[in-house]
Amino acid sequence: MIVGARQPSSTTMRAARHEHWGSPLEIADVARPEVGAGEVRIAVQATSVNPIDMHTGRNSGYEQSMRLPCIPGWDVAGVVDAVGYGVTRHAVGDRLYGLAWFPYPAGTYAEYMTVPAYHLVPMPKSASFAEAACLPMAALTAWQMLDAVETRAGQHVLVSGASGGVGHVAVQLAVARGATVTALARPEHHATLHELGAHTCVDYTDPDAVTDIGKVDAALDLVGFDFGASLFDRVMPGGAIALSTAWSIKGYRDAAAERGIRAASCLVEPDPVALAAIAELVDAGAVRVVVGAEFDLSDAADAQRWVEHRRGFGKAAIMVNTPERA
């Protein structure tokens, strides 16, 4: 049975939290949550950092749905510690992963958390806790963006930000659907992207190389801003483009429509059915999440800085109760 790295009492736990909006993450002893009806309590083994995690601790609009002190995080991989009344799908000891509560507060930067049982599904059997924790938000975002542009076999799909958490998974999921994939990333990441299945890799800082891509059936815009707008010229009329940030959509659809392109914004939604399918793809070897760095819970602030400054390929995992990190 998995045990916690540190068990000061049966009623408290460690968590990384913001005391005030804009304050740094600090480790604190807080009350361990009690499991409710229809919920499971998870002994968190790992979580991962997503860009939205940083916004929850700042004056970025998310504080309207958050309460102080604020424990960030939505990705979780862990072991069922307790089950609430009426829960039959999971049992104590099960290894589960998922996107918890999103977009409402979840608090996965902690040793324990409670979540509706249906939000979680069994982890990929071949994945470590770090790998499983790095999948939910990134993989679901990629999955739903590919759905939005109606990706199918034989299409040519362009993925911007391909070395990031969402991007490198999107490359693999598109390939798994039978698409030809062109990945935009810095040259130092091209070899890894080819290993993950990208057919062509292009340096996004080279305008001529980007132009030479020609026209594609669909594009996933994981960058936004001016660079994202430039992707319109790479999509053929009748094609589609998906934007990963719903709050950047103003004017986006109109600009796409002027070029005869369909545009969609994708703010990720929990989808346990898709997560179960993604777990099958992981176990089949069709999808591999790259854990670019691992941090202890006490170094959660460093993990966020790693993501914010884009210091590597893939995702950053925060290890919590995992024994080998004790």
TrEMBL record:
Domain Enoyl reductase (ER): residue ranges: 22-318
A matching Pfam family: ADH_zinc_N_2
GO molecular function, one term: oxidoreductase activity
Domain of life, per lineage: Bacteria
InterPro entries reported in the protein's UniProt record: ADH-like_N (IPR013154), ER (IPR020843), GroES-like_sf (IPR011032), NAD(P)-bd_dom_sf (IPR036291), YIM1/Zinc_Alcohol_DH_Fams (IPR050700)
PANTHER family reported in the protein's UniProt record: ALCOHOL DEHYDROGENASE RELATED, RETICULON-4-INTERACTING PROTEIN 1, MITOCHONDRIAL
Record's protein name: Zinc-binding dehydrogenase
Native organism: Nocardia aurantiaca
